[in-house]
Amino acid sequence: MQQRAPRHERGFNLIEVVISLAVLGVLVGVGVPSAADMIESQRLANVSNDVLQQLHLARSEAIKRNARVVLCKSSGGDTCAKAGGWEQGWILFQDANNSGTREPAEPVLERLLPVPQGFRLSANTPMARYVSFGPFGGARMTSGAFQAGTFTVCRISVDQVEGRQIIINAGGRPRVQKVRLAECL
């Protein structure tokens, strides 16, 4: 006569399933806000890196062309804007007459789109209208004085918010640093 081996039941009982789902719910609840913060931080880094890349491009074009090259805010892509912020977009051009504004005969090297919706890009007073690089790569105002200053990129908020500052030193070299801002308007 053959004997049957005892059967071992496989699977989960109801209590194990409920506990597993509860643990999974807690992990998702903790992880989702962190993931959203990480995505927002990455978007901020992307915007600030785009600005940094354009400043490097302007500096290298000035050195390559042995001429003054200017970045100025521009909504239309043809002339420099006198009002509004840098988030409206900007143009990169060779400034033959050293005016800091684009004349019709001066070539536009690049047109840049506005920063993404919900972000703010502002500059302090030395760079409120334009950033100009001379033939040796230094940032210079139209008067010849060195032009050092800071761009600030942040997500628009009335609360404390993470931001990035792009700082241009007296030699014209830009760098990025993280900052916490009280607000971003």
Largest sheet, in brief, is: 4 strands, antiparallel
How many strands appear in the DSSP assignment?
8
Percentage of residues in helical conformation: 25-40%
CATH third-level topology: minor pseudopilin epsh fold
Q: Which consecutive residue ranges, at least 5 long each, have pLDDT under 50?
A: none
Mean pLDDT: 88
CATH C-level class is: Alpha Beta
Named at the architecture level, the CATH assignment is 3-Layer(bab) Sandwich
Overall spatial form: elongated
Describe the strand arrangement of the main beta sheet, using strand numbers: 3-2-1-5
Q: Total number of helical segments?
A: 1
- Please, what is the CATH homologous superfamily? minor pseudopilin epsh domain
Strand content: 25-35%
- Give helix and strand order, one letter per element, not per position: HEEEEEEEE
How far is it from the N-terminal to the C-terminal residue, by CA? 87 Å
Q: What's the alpha carbon Rg, rounded to whole Å? A: 27 Å
